[in-house]
Amino acid sequence: MGSDWDCGSRASGCGFRSAGSAAGGAATTTVADTVYLADGTPASGNLIISWPSFVTTSGTAVASGSTAVTLGVKGALSVALVPNAGATPAGVYYSVVYQLGPGQVKTEYWVVPTASPASLATVRMTPGSGLAAQPVSMQYVNSALATKADDTSVVHLNGSETISGTKTFASAPSVPAPSGTASVANKAYVDQAVANVGAGNYLSIAGGTMTGPISLPGNPSAPLQATPSNMWMRDLQRRQTLLVGIEPKRAHFVQRDVVTFPRAPLQSRKVGFPDSGFDLGFSPRGLSDTGEA
Predict the structure, then answer these.
(1) What is the DSSP code (8-state) at residue 36?
(2) How many domains does the chain have?
(3) Are 65 and 84 contacting, i.e. CB atoms less than 8 angstroms apart?
(4) Strand 258-260 and strand 253-255: pairing?
(5) How distant, in Å, are the alpha carbons of 40, 47, 67, 119, 183 from that of 1?
(6) Range(s) of the domain holding residue 96
(7) Alpha carbons 203 and 211: distance in angstroms, whole number
(8) For position 94, which CATH number holds?
(9) What pLDDT is stored for residue 127 in this prediction?
(10) Quick one: DSSP state of residue 74?
(11) How confident is the model at residue 134 (pLDDT cuts 50, 70, 90)?
(12) Strands, E, within 89-230: which ranges?
C-alpha cells in the first residue's frame, strides 16, 4: 500500500518507515481514505507526493523529498507522513500529483495533522499563505480575488471622490470643522454657531411691550405700514387750518391757534362762527376745502 518507505527505497530523501512512532524515527500520521473517479467508480493508479524541508512543531527536522504511492484495491489509499501542520517555515505543504490513467492527472496540496488517521477531506488544503515562491493553484487565486473589491468601485482613504446613493452609518462619523459652504458641519461647530441665537432683548412675533422708540426707514408705502410722527403731524396741521374755517387763499399761515391775515391778526377761536360777532366779509357757512366761499 506504500506505507513503508525510507531512504534508498522508492522515496528520495530521508523519510520514515511506518505510521506511528518507529524506533529512532519521527512520529507520523496515516492518511487513509478511498479515491474515486468522477463517475463514482474506485480509482486506480499512483500518487506522487513531494515536500520541501521543514521542522515539525516537536522540533524534528525533515529533509525535502518525494515518494510514490500506489492505490490499493477499490481505490484504497494509505500513506504515513510526518505532520506538517504548524511546521517551520510557515506554509509548508505536501504536493500530491494523482496519476490515475491517460489524461487523469491532477495536483492537490496536503497539510497533515498530528491526529492519526486523517482523511483526504482533513488534509486537503488550498495553498498560498506559505512560501512566497511556492506555486499556487487557480482555485487559490480565484478564491483570493473573490474577496477583493474592484478598485474603481470602492471609497479610498485618500483623494477626492463622489459617492452616489444613500449610505447608512452604524455610528456617527467624525468630521473636522467645516471650511466651505458645502462642507459637513460637526456638532461642536453647530453648537457654537447657535449659542447666541435667540438670546438678549428682542420682540417676539407673538407681541410684547416696547421700552424705547422705533425709528422707521421712511414714509409708508402700504395702508397697514407704520407712519412716522412727522408725517401725521404735517397732515394734522393742514386739517386744523380747514377746521377753523379760514380761507387758504386769504390766510398767510397758521401757527398754533393764531391766524395771520393780510390786514390784522385774530384769535382763531373767535373767527368763522355765526355767533362770533365779527364780520370778515364771507359767508358764515364756512369755506370748502377748495377755498371757495
Answers:
(1) B
(2) 2
(3) no
(4) antiparallel
(5) 21, 11, 12, 16, 74
(6) 20-139
(7) 11
(8) 2.60.40.2190
(9) 65
(10) G
(11) low
(12) 94-99, 105-110, 124-125
